[in-house]
Amino acid sequence: MNKSSNKGRIGWIDLAKGICIFLVVFHHTTVALDLDYPFSTQLTSFRMPLYFILSGLFFKQYEGFIGFLKRKTNKLLIPFLFFLLMTSVIPCGFIQHDLSLKYFFTDMNGPLYNYTIWFLLCLFEINLLFYFIQWLAGLVGSKYTLLLLALACVSLGVCGLFLGLTGHTIPLYVGTTLTALPFFAFGWWLRRHTRFLSSPVNLRHDVPLMLICGIIVFFCATPVIFSFNFIPREGVAFVHLCGIAGTMMVLILAKILKRIPLVTFWGRYSIMILCTHEVVILVLSKIMSRFLHGVPLLIAVLTVTLLICHLLILFMRKYMPHVTAQKDLIPV
Q: Is pTM beyond 0.85 here?
């Protein structure tokens, strides 16, 4: 394996995370500027599934449920609550007189709302749900554990798709949690039941597989909005297929490239970019749109946003490690 640090990180996995967070920032920049871009449907079909699958790769039960809950609270829930407070509740408190927490979970397009942090809460829920599914499946016996785990995750994923199709909204992104569960489970399976992470690059096999995955995404992609669990009826059968195919395409590409220094660095600290870029884009788009338009505006906002986020990583890594998943706030 290609190690990116003495802590045993897998360098090309950090590169895959970096590609993922770049796609997220790029997409949100185009949304803020109301601009279209080529292959937006294709990228939308696997951008967030890539993040869920990457998270599932490193799922562990640790020393028991209490220890597991503490770790996931440190890594996901605390950053979510901190950035919810600092980038949403407090700023909006100066704007709205009828401020309530319900607002932040129902109207994600409100003023100064840092809506991208929804992913942290959703991922926290997925981890807990997958933990209990794995525990329940294990009670039956090791012979059928994997089969029962797969059936449970697929069934709940179908329930999530149904909720998205029918427009039923469950608070706290539970619908998205159900829809995304099979992606997370696929990531877990990919690491523990295949040699994909440990096997060396084989261009004769990897490149054709990457091309096949790209073809699937190109022809079958559907414009899913995972944050709202919006599932278009015409593409519902391909939601999970495209998410997995697109993710495999990116993972194989990252495995071949191994490392791109800046992008790999962003991937290692992607949670910090995830939690801060939306507010940066909002401010920059308001300022720069007075002087630039179209593609030059997009390039300027995207470039400066990534630069600011890079500087914020350096700052938060040193001065805010306990609320950015770098150190544990709750002792484990």
A: yes
